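Hey team,

Filing this mostly as a record. A colleague (T.K.) asked me to run one chain through the structure pipeline before their review meeting, and I want the input and output archived in the tracker in case anyone asks later how it was produced. No errors, nothing strange. Just documentation.

Input sequence:
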Amino acid sequence: MKFFISGPPGVGKTTTFLKVIELLREDGLRIGGFICPEVRAGGRRIGFKIVDLMSGEEGWLAKLCEGGEPRIGRYCVNVEAATAVGVNSIKKAVENSDLIAIDEIGPMELSVPQLRSAIYDVLRSDRVLLAVIHWKLKDTILKSLSGRWELFSVSLSNRDWIHKDLYFKIRDSLY
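Output structure:
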C-alpha cells in the first residue's frame, strides 16, 4: 500500500509527514528513506538538504545558483549528494525498514536519474510507502501506479489532525 501526502505549498505537508513518522517510531517501527528540509539564512531560503532518515547522513540537494545543471527554478541540484544520500537511503530502507518514507517526490528529486530510478522502483514495489508528492506532479505519478494507494490532501482546515488518520491507516496496513 502506498500513502501520499499532497497539498499547496506551505500548507504543512512535511509537518504532517514528520508527525506520522514520529508516531510510527514510537510504535517501534523502523523507518527508512529521506527528507529534504529547506535551509534558510537571514530569513531567506538558500537551498534544500537531503537527509537519510535512518543514519542522519546529509548533503545538499540543491542550492541557489548562478549556473549549473540540472536547474530547478533558482536552484542547482547537487546530483552527487542526491545520489549518494538519496539512493543509498532508499536502498537501506528497502533492506532494513518496515516503512519507506520519502519527503518529497518533486522536480528536484526526479531531476537526478539514479534517484528518480530508485523512487520509481519503490513506487512499483509491494513495499509500504509514505511519501509527500509535489502538487504539480501528483496526477502524473498517481496515474502511473498499479497497486493500492491512498492520497491525503493537506489543507489549512485539516492540517492539525490529518496526521492521526494517516498514522492509523499506515499502522493498520503494516499489521
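Quick notes for T.K.: The two ends are 12 Å apart (CA to CA). The domain at 2-37+50-55+89-174 is CATH 3.40.50.300 (Rossmann fold).
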